From TrEMBL:
GO terms under biological process: lysyl-tRNA aminoacylation
Keywords assigned by UniProt, alphabetized: Aminoacyl-tRNA synthetase, ATP-binding, Cytoplasm, Ligase, Magnesium, Metal-binding, Nucleotide-binding, Protein biosynthesis
Quaternary structure, from the entry: Homodimer.
Protein name: Lysine--tRNA ligase
Species: Microbacterium maritypicum (Microbacterium liquefaciens)
UniProt main location, coarse: cytoplasm
Residues reported in the UniProt entry to bind Mg(2+) 1: 424, 431
Length: 510
């Protein structure tokens, strides 16, 4: 057995580990050259164009996983996988081949079945991390391990670098920067990818059951809008103009509603030039949906259904188990609380939509609450609410009825002066989704945009500009509508208990 095909011993220092990797790379590159020379005529070498796979490892495990120890099937297959374990003895070599989903099968390379030269080649050329094709009979070893007794084999792709140290897990930073290695060595990483796919499929299925249509809207926009956020700016050479990466698809989806697509949604990528932390990423996946003749109450019910169906798709139940072992219940009817009423109850001071900015600033300072930049009534109320209420939310909770000035795209409340019909959904202590009764009056919408423009002129980099094209669309008549938006990455966080960088397959890192 060569050193390169064994699990490396723990390195004492980073420098010694780097030296060991450098030495292994040199050895493997030399093997690559010899393989190319040896198999040039056969068209194989270290990276053949293909191998004659007849079965996958998961399919073989599903069909033959219960074979008794020592059983022979007489079934001949061709299978390929990555070598994650190798043990070479005199006349018999063993290797564990791993498929992309993490399922494994043993390959047995014996002198009697492949011959002396082929066995010697296996010992010389095969290392951990290589992709290998084996052809032979499906059997169960004497120890009861599902195996392929090979009569032929070939390297399908030579790994030039070794797999990570078998004696220590990748650090979080290492997992994020080298997700491909994370997927090879860690089951949780593979499960998260599959959970995300199951969530997206569930979301689409739920929307289809409610007669929604999925559409795509521009990611490059001449004017950013649809949310209060700082955009990324780029330049189009073709148009010789500045463009903005989408911060939200809202204004285009509402154009679709104006055009008669009365139930519409999009699962999209958004970009916000803001901070990154455990719940925020500059690039993230977002779901937005709009329903003509609906309101924020209907969108809350739809959102609850979307989340609960997604949990069932991943966990088989609305009771999910997080990565740390904690069970969390997403089932049942979720609580709905008023922002102003819950703030008043938690703070011991009655807070109303009519409170002045000066009074709210004084109240915030009394309680050591950081003042938001460009403080307005709404921003102060939301900061105070986060200080007094947010941390005590345990169950999934809709926080209802927000200040007007922080919600420029939302209809005023039908019965409560000074607030709008908006909710935020909190799960696990973070905001997962938001929903509106949409503002469809173009006159009021213009007034709101103008107020936002004034904030921008005073230095608020997150304020929305006046979008004349969107206002023109509203002037053609948009029916009363409900809308909602939900972070896909955060939905995975709520179901799995992971941080945002774990739920994104390839997150942005410096």
């Amino acid at each position: 057995m060569t050193d390169a095909s064994a699990a490396p011993e723990p390195a004492s220092t980073d420098s010694s580990l780097e030296e060991d990797v450098h030495e292994q790379k040199a050895v493997r590159l030399a093997k690559r050259e010899r393989l190319i020379e040896k198999r040039a005529d056969a068209g194989g070498g270290a990276f053949p164009v293909g191998v004659p796979v007849t079965h996958t490892i998961p399919a073989l495990r599903a069909e033959y996983g219960e074979l008794e120890a020592g059983a022979e099937t007489g079934v001949i297959v061709g299978v390929a996988g990555r070598v994650v374990f190798s043990r070479n003895t005199g006349k018999l070599c063993f290797a564990t081949l791993q498929a992309g989903d993490g399922s494994r099968i043993q390959a047995m390379i014996s002198l009697a079945n492949v011959g002396e030269e082929s066995l010697a080649d296996w010992k010389e050329y095969v290392d951990l991390g290589d992709h290998v094709f084996v052809h032979g009979e499906v059997i169960s070893s004497r120890r009861g391990e599902l195996s392929i007794m090979a009569d032929d084999w070939t390297i399908a792709a030579k790994a030039i670098l070794p797999l990570p140290n078998a004696y220590s897990e990748l650090s979080e930073e290492g997992r994020v920067r080298s997700r491909y290695l994370d997927l090879i060595v860690r089951e949780q990483a593979r499960n998260t990818v599959r959970a995300r796919a199951a969530v997206n499929a569930s979301l689409r299925s739920t929307f289809t059951s409610h007669d929604y249509l999925e559409v795509e809207t521009p990611m490059l926009q001449v004017q950013h809008g649809g949310a209060s956020a700082r955009p990324f700016i780029t330049h189009s050479n073709a148009f010789d103009t500045e463009l903005y990466l989408r911060i939200a698809p809202e204004l285009y989806l509402k154009r679709a509603v104006v055009g008669g697509i009365e139930r519409v949604y999009e699962i999209n990528r958004n970009f916000r030039n803001e901070g990154a932390d455990s719940t925020h990423s500059p690039e993230f996946a977002m779901l937005e949906a709009y329903q003509a003749y609906g309101d924020y109450n209907q969108m809350a019910a739809l959102t609850q259904e979307l989340v609960q169906n997604a949990a069932i798709a991943v966990a088989g139940s609305t009771t999910v188990t997080w990565a740390d072992g904690t069970e969390y219940e997403l089932g049942g009817e979720w609580d709905r609380i008023s922002m102003y009423e819950s703030l008043s109850a938690a703070s011991g001071r009655t807070v109303t939509p009519q409170d002045s900015v000066e009074d709210l600033i004084a109240f915030a300072q009394e309680n050591d609450v950081d003042l938001p930049p460009q403080a307005t009534h709404g921003k102060l109320v939301e900061e105070l609410w986060e200080h007094f209420v947010k941390g005590d939310l345990v169950r999934p909770t809709f926080v209802m009825d927000f200040p007007v000035d922080t919600s420029p795209l939302v209809r005023e409340h039908r019965s409560i002066a000074g607030v709008v019909e908006k909710w935020d959904l909190y799960i696990r202590g973070f905001e997962l989704a938001t929903g509106y009764s949409e503002l469809v009056d173009p006159v009021i919408q213009r007034e709101r945009f103008v107020e936002q423009a004034k904030l921008a002129a005073r230095g608020d980099v997150e304020a929305m500009p006046v979008d004349e094209e969107f206002l023109r669309a509203l002037e053609h008549g948009m029916p009363p509508s409900g809308g909602m938006g939900m972070g896909i990455d955060r939905l995975l966080m709520a179901i799995t208990g992971l941080g945002i960088r774990e739920t994104i397959l390839f997150p942005l890192v410096k």
